[in-house]
């Protein structure tokens, strides 16, 4: 294949091998923990990479993301209880979050209850906003369980789709891992540039 380089198979093995390590699973958990607090890049980015290059590690990575998100949400709930206005101000200062997003999420929770966490998985509002507003509305610990369901619904589904692609296109990805990696990272970069531009408008 014209795009293949002599060391491409080695590059694939190196990347796939590292993504199969316990350290990569820890990255998934820490990423999800941070994103449930103040980080603004979703853990879908990481789970998709795992799916492409180490598809068999998707289940354990999704589990780590769920646990990390629940831990981060629990910390955010405590902080919201202690300093609601301060946390609200921090959240609305995160890239991609508009000042009126908190009001939108609050309205969804008031009308739908905790199931709003599930719809929010595909609406563009980060789960951290739902945790913050659910805490203010007094939903309590059950909200953390809905954080887990939110991650299963979106991150889990995305991970399965990317794992399927990783398995089906295994031979091609193995031949041109650098192209596959660049295409994947480039796609997310374009998405976030467009997303932040849209949310800023």
Number of domains: 1
Q: Order of SSEs, N→C?
A: HHHHHHHHHHH
Net shape? elongated
**Rounded Rg:** 18 Å
Strand percent estimate:
under 5%
Q: How many β-strand runs?
A: 0
The helix content is over 70%
Structural class: mainly alpha
Per DSSP, the total helix count is 11
Q: Quick one: biggest sheet?
A: none
Query: Separation of termini?
Result: 44 Å
Q: What is the averaged pLDDT score?
A: 92
Unreliable stretches (pLDDT < 50, length at least 5) are: none
Please give a structural write-up.
With 201 residues, the protein is mainly α. The protein has one domain (8-200). It is 78% helix and 0% strand. It contains eleven helices and no strands. Helix 8 (127-136) runs antiparallel to helix 9. The protein is elongated and about 55 Å long. The N and C termini lie far apart (44 Å). The relative contact order is 0.16. The model has no long low-confidence stretch (mean pLDDT 92).
Main attributes?
mainly alpha; 0% strand; single chain; 201 residues
Provide a short characterization of the protein structure.
The chain has 201 residues and is mostly helical. The chain has 11 helices and no strands. It has one domain.
Secondary-structure blueprint of this entry?
Blueprint: H1 8-19, H2 22-37, H3 44-53, H4 58-82, H5 84-92, H6 101-112, H7 116-120, H8 127-136, H9 142-168, H10 170-175, H11 177-200
Helix pairs in contact: 2-4, 3-9, 4-5, 4-8, 4-9, 5-8, 6-8, 8-9
């Amino acid at each position: 294949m014209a795009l293949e380089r002599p060391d491409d198979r080695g590059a694939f093995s190196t990347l796939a091998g590292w993504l199969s390590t316990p350290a990569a699973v820890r990255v998934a958990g820490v990423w999800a923990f941070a994103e449930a607090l103040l980080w603004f890049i979703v853990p879908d980015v990481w789970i998709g990479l795992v799916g492409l290059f180490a598809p068999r590690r998707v289940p354990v990575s999704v589990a780590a993301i769920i646990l990390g998100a629940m831990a981060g949400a629990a910390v955010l709930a405590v902080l919201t209880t202690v300093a609601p206005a301060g946390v609200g101000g921090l959240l609305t200062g995160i890239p991609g979050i508009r000042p009126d997003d908190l009001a939108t999420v609050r309205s969804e929770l008031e009308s739908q209850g905790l199931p709003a966490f599930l719809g929010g998985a595909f609406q563009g509002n980060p789960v951290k906003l739902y945790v913050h507003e659910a805490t203010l509305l007094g939903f309590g610990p059950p909200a953390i369980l809905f954080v887990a369901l939110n991650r299963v619904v979106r991150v889990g589904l995305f991970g399965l789709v990317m794992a399927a692609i990783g398995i089906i296109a295994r031979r091609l990805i193995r031949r041109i891992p650098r192209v596959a990696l660049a295409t994947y990272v480039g796609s997310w970069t374009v998405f976030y540039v467009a997303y932040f531009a849209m949310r800023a408008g």
